[in-house]
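Budget justification, computational time. The allocation requested in the original proposal was used primarily to generate structure tokens for proteins on the priority list. As evidence of use, we reproduce two of the resulting records. The first is shown immediately below.
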Amino acid sequence: MFASLSDRLTATFKNLRGKGRLTESDVNATIRDIRLALLDADVALPVVKRFTGSVRERALGAEVSQALNPAQQVVKIVQEELVGILGGQTRTIRFAKQPPTVIMLAGLQGSGKTTFAGKLGKWLKDQGHTPLLVAADLQRPNAVTQLEVVGERAGIPVFAPERGNMGGHDAVLDSGEGTRSFGDPVSVSRMGIEQARAKQYDVVIVDTAGRLAVDANLMQQAGDIRAAIAPDEVLFVLDAMIGQAAVETAQAFHEGVAFTGVVLSKLDGDARGGAALSVAELTGEPIMFASTGEKVTDFEVFHPDRMASRILDMGDVLTLIEQAEKAFDKRQADEMARKFLAEEDFTFEDFLQQMNAIKKMGSLKSMLKMMPGMQGMRDQLDAFDDREFDRVEAMVRSMTPFERTHPKQINGSRRARIAKGSGVTVTEVNQLLERFGQAQKMMKSMARGGGGGIPGMPGIPGAGKRGKQQPQRKKSKSGNPAKRAAEERAAAEKAASGRAASAASAFGAPGADADGAADADPLAGFDASNLPKGFEKFLGGR
């Protein structure tokens, strides 16, 4: 969504590279480019003025003039100010001291409230909670049915005593108002909380009705529901694609419902979306979650610092690590580490396990976009076809169990059968087997530690040497045969222990010190001061 803003800011910072000193005219030109980029991205004018004013003041101060690399210091200032307008600190749900915690969803019709209810429920369930969805949107046709479908996908129960508007003509006309009545959403919301207490659900998510535009009836109904259920959190679901109207809508809901947090939906769209970045600054309420697709797993906690890094093309490595931790099974990782240490062949069965883990992390395209500096390769990434994984998986699943564990035994006739079974050509099967063989050799070379290396790679131990490299052992100088044999045996055990520790550390296993002692700190002396904020938790609290 923020591709255009990211491109403009990245191009602006390129003009500063290589300058050992920044003049006032350089700073003014940079601020002008940043202002135009923000305005072009639909960021609200008051926010743009405050943002550029703060950046200009800091850029003209000693913070930049005394820096060794002024250009990098300006980027750092822009990132910090961008984090500020996005909310500053990450905030998630504040749970009630006495369950159930009541979460009310509000927003315009079509903003994605119902879909988000299922996503939030799935996320809470994965956190160990027992959520209940309450269908209090009785106005939009088939809204109750949609919530039930979303709840079924997420594995979350739905409380729906009223069917609401089924899209037919069986509604009763209210006297004097000219509106149709499909049930009382306030009563349904109260009953939902009572049901949660009775069935011991610890979180209640109330999905309320919306309108195509802000009006008095919408605010009255939302206000009545809030007064009746006294929610612990009121989340305003905002469509990030509605442009400048996002600011007006957010302010209207903040005055009418007093929401406590914002959810940005449809962040996977191609609209400019800058107005959504203005909401936290103008309302004073934090952006708490981001919704990026139709699947119940297309959901993430909103981290202002990580979003700022994405916009500035610095990547989002922390989110990538968290996704990997959820996707990769510890037992399978331990088995891979054991195979790695024993220098056993990496098989197609192992390959299938790794592929399934990557699929759990989501789209490979979206993962690559989280890597630093990938914005410049956006066209190549957009052209990448995730279905290539499906074709490779089809080839592997067309193999017999014997062939998956003995790929070298796959001869010409077997290759033809695999190609026919997976709907590809024999050439594609040959290419897969060739790449797989190279991967096996690389893993074996890594497992040998310092004695191996990757053949043909300059600057890497073992480069240009063929054949298995044997570690050189230090010969004993003792004239006593028994003592000499003991020293040589100790040296061999020390070398083997060092290789094992090196290989195990590649899989995150505890390291070993120079004497082979377990539990040595593999990060001793490592300076983590230059890593992204929050990364230290992955380094044992450094």
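The second record produced under the same allocation is shown here.
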Amino acid sequence: MANASMEEFEALLNESFEMDTPEEGSVVKGKVIAIEAGQAIIDVGYKMEGRVELKEFANPGEAPEIAVGDEVEVYLRAAENARGEAVISREMARREEAWDRLEKAYADDQRVEGAIFGRVKGGFTVDLGGAVAFLPGSQVDVRPVRDAGPLMGLKQPFQILKMDRRRGNIVVSRRAILEESRAEQRAEVIGNLTEGQSVDGVVKNITEYGAFVDLGGVDGLLHVTDMAWRRVNHPNEILNIGETVKVQVIKINKETHRISLGMKQLQEDPWDLVGAKYPLSSVHKGRVTNITDYGAFVELEPGVEGLVHVSEMSWTKKNVHPGKIVSTSQEVDVMVLEIDGAKRRVSLGLKQTMRNPWEVFAETHPEGTEVEGEVKNITEFGLFIGLDGDIDGMVHLSDLSWDERGEEAIQSYHKNDVVQAVVSEVDVEKERISLSIKALGGDKFAEAVGGVKRGSIVTVNVTAIEDGGIEVEYEGMKSFIRRSDLSRDRAEQRPERFSVGDKVDVRVTNVDSKTRRLGLSIKAREIAEEKEAVQQYGSSDSGASLGDILGAALKTGDD
């Protein structure tokens, strides 16, 4: 019985040791029995006491809250140190407790409360009630934060992004919380908006393509093309950041929560009155707003712009850039050529407000008028002469000289030479003016042979004797009579029987106005005279000799 009692007592004693003696490395409950020298003395049971710095009972930035008699949980690092005291830590107990709590929150995807208390490279440190987490700079707010001072020490919710207990790493985000609340707020605001509704908003940001307007927790995009009916080159022309504007909700995308806004939709569309205000062929003043390679845009009124195509800019400047004819902001007179209401396009003309220079030239310079101008260009087919009205006239090779071939005559002309010419033709439709330099002194050939026809008998002067015939002159026009045309009789076809200065009657065999030559023949005159004599005085068959007939004809002529 005694042995049994001893065994029972030993078992109970061992059990009490196991129950009362806490295990090192675990969290145990204790009671504050005294506070001295900035430390709390805590009884953790089994006659074990330990000391904990008071600051371990304080949250970052706060005073410690601890009093004698308080029950607290501490971490037992060692049962006894050199002084016979337990080595305990409130901070490590809080950390263990915090990790258990945080792991559960992470598993349940729940928010945790914490306070930012320090700045480190790349971000901040956050106290999550005993565990320290890292808050990356990009996760502080939805937009970059320049000054995080107001956020320090402030208890607020965070989302755990990643945690590793073994390594002691926790990464949290404040931005995820804000985005979630923004999304809720956004959904609520969007739910209260309808397309076509007019609302007030504040301009938050301006870009090249538009402006972002805050509608009370949700941003909408006001595109530059929807700001005004007129052309807006940059949004800052009409908007300022922080300005309150009235806008219309044009479109709401329920999936992406994107809102498109417009300002011009709240104003009267000037295009509704364009047809009545700008009839076809009417002339109006406008301002050049933009210049491109293909023309210039002219504003007739705010919101109504028309295009002057490069082909409608000048009568004379055909292949030049529009910027050489007009400049931005210049006021110009334009004519309405076409209106397309559906496409909101107006075609304008600049040259139509000025008279066609070819029409003006045709009125002021009828055919035969003498003109003077500078040689602008020399080509293989003639000269281009600059004329009044900034237009050119052309002298064809064939109109350069009466006496020389065109290819030879053009050699004596050079660029920038000032020359006189006569207007020979003006074609307004084809914008072409034909000039003649050789016609300046009149047409000497036409004047000389005006009454001369083929078959006429004329008197010419012999000017030169050559082996092949004789050169003669009629009214200043030179011609050549070949040896075979010098006489009806072959024996008399000798050039040497003529002398320079002789006057000879000849028959005109040809009048060539192109080569400007008379075809002349003594032989043809003699044959014609013989024929006429035979017809008048009898036939050669009647027995009378030719000599008798010609003698009689000559005698009659003498009488």
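A brief technical remark on that second record: Residues 512 and 518 are 6 Å apart (CA to CA).
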